Amino acid sequence: MPDGKSFSPSPEFASQAIAKPEIYAAAKSDRLAFWAEQARALHWAKPFTEILDWSHAPVARWFDDGELNVSYNCLDRHVIAGHGDRIALYFEGEPGDRREISYAELTREVKKCANVLTRLGVGKGDRVAIYLPMIPEAVITMLAVARLGAIHSVVFGGFSADALATRINDADVRVVVTADGGYRKGKASALKPAVDEALANDRCPTVEQVLVVKRTGEDVVWNDQDHWWHDEMAKASDEHEAQAFPSEQELFILYTSGTTGAPKGILHTSGGYLTQAAYTHKNIFDLHPETDVYWCTADVGWITGHSYVVYGPLANGASQVIYEGTPDAPHPGRWWEIIERYKVSIFYTAPTAIRSFMKLGREIPDKFDLSSLRVLGSVGEPINPEAWLWYRSAIGGDKCPVVDTWWQTETGAIMVSPLPGITSLKPGSAQTPVPGIEIKIVNEEGEEVPRGEAGLLTITEPWPSMLRGIWRNPGRFHEAYWSRFEGQYFAGDGAKFDDDGDIWLLGRVDDVMNVSGHRLSTAEIESSLVGHPWVAEAAVVGASDEITGQAVVAFVILRLDQVEAAGEAENISKILREQVSKDIGPIARPRQIMVVAELPKTRSGKIMRRLLRDVAEGRPVGDVTTLADTSVMSVISAKLADGASD
Ligand code: WT7
Questions:
Q1: Whose CA is nearest to atom 20 of ligand 1?
Q2: How are beta strands 518-521 and 512-515 bridged, if at all?
Q3: Cα of 408 from ligand 1 centre, angstroms
Q4: Which range, of 77-91, 543-557, 591-605, averages the lowest pLDDT?
Q5: What is the reported pLDDT for 511?
């Protein structure tokens, strides 16, 4: 914070906090012993004796000789410990329907679902795609897949049929679990048609069965391989003994955007992942499972939903809210109404949401009783100090600590964050590596940069929830994360230490954009655009946006003959935006399409996105001396000033 303002934990908070200041010293003095201690908080059917095997670096093996069942850890053991009546999920549907599901009931449902999946042919190591709205069945299916030692690949319901098909085929998925639809923005929104389209014409030949949850009751087309969830669940036994699997048993694949090409299937395994998800969830959110009500607003389609809706909270026996819909349906105070209704005490959301509420004004949250809140979290992109301060004040009643948590799909769990009962909080900074995590900020040569200077964030020691690879692509795993600096994980983020040694994240340094906390690849959107017959060349940039952090802006060179032949020159922008929506999903749809005659390229033919970003953000164009043709930018700027864009 420029003015040096910081917020120390109150003595009451500090004295009750789960994490005590000694935690940092404990982790420093023997990092591996520290992680082993965290892992022992889980139930191991066969206790581990080995902590870390790094001999096949960069593929780590954690707790390798131990055996556990992830689903048992999230369910059965809480019931056995006498907490079966505790509410695991307070589900709130967008139309206002509600369901309270205790740990005992959730355990039964997951056991039934495991039996259903077994009957549909799912066994250890098989891949199951989950394409569902944010309803309890999504959580149940994930845990049922985990229970069988199978591998889930959750595909966000906002992704298109094409995106779903790509992910299904990359992982040779055997069974797809979906729903007729879900509710969004006050309406039923169909999902099953996208699955039908993805599977049509034998496009996904490995898929044998489709399990369909009835959520909206809208008509659906029925195919031979389809089964209704309710029919199958009604027939299934609610007894299912969880078998123990090795610690390194694959747990899930989650696709995320990289700098180039198709999305990467990030692979996570069991023991280490669950250890770090549970440990960070407990310590960073200061979870007291007997009394807290936790709510993370992320969809299970993203890593935040995996680690901080499903695995972390349930491993810790938390009671949590899950909400199906959008924050503004049917009214802009919906989230605050939910916090009031369930007396939510820990709340975890993204800066983009905070900024849009900020814009609407604090009169809206002021109408609700938010006094139950005691910890607030932020994730997905850097949170600007102004939004941080608003969050603490308007939502947190000037008393709640705000923890800004930095991590990635690849890291599996939080890596940099304050601890709310220990750290003096600085608005806008993620501050400190989590105990057990080693971070460095280096220059291009891999040398540590002095405090105050921007550099690249690297992780220098293996951590339990680290990705174990990219599904079926070890070469890309190595190239994307481990090739830039010898023996260190390169995250793709810029960062600096301030004078106090606190970490500030400065955004991506590669061609990955962050729109509303969602990761998008410029290359993927460009390839969608050039897939259209009208587009000769395309360049995409993330331009800064007041609400969404970044927004997608595309520059295209058209094939004018094709556009003329189609006779739809006036609809170019709309049609190209639709193309991206169809190929990837509405989240990737460009905010703006700028038609240009040329693109700025270096002499080696690389597009200079920096210059395009200047144009997209309305700034004077920066240094053009490395361009092959230095006049290009003035042509582009002049043409755009003429109103030739969009
Ligand atoms: C990228 C990872 C981690 C779950 C959600 C996103 C950015 C994430 C922060 C933060 C600054 C952040 C980074 C990172 N990011 N959290 N607190 N401060 N930047 O997961 O889709 O894998 O994206 O999100 O750029 O590399 P993801």
A1: 408
A2: antiparallel
A3: 5
A4: 591-605
A5: 87
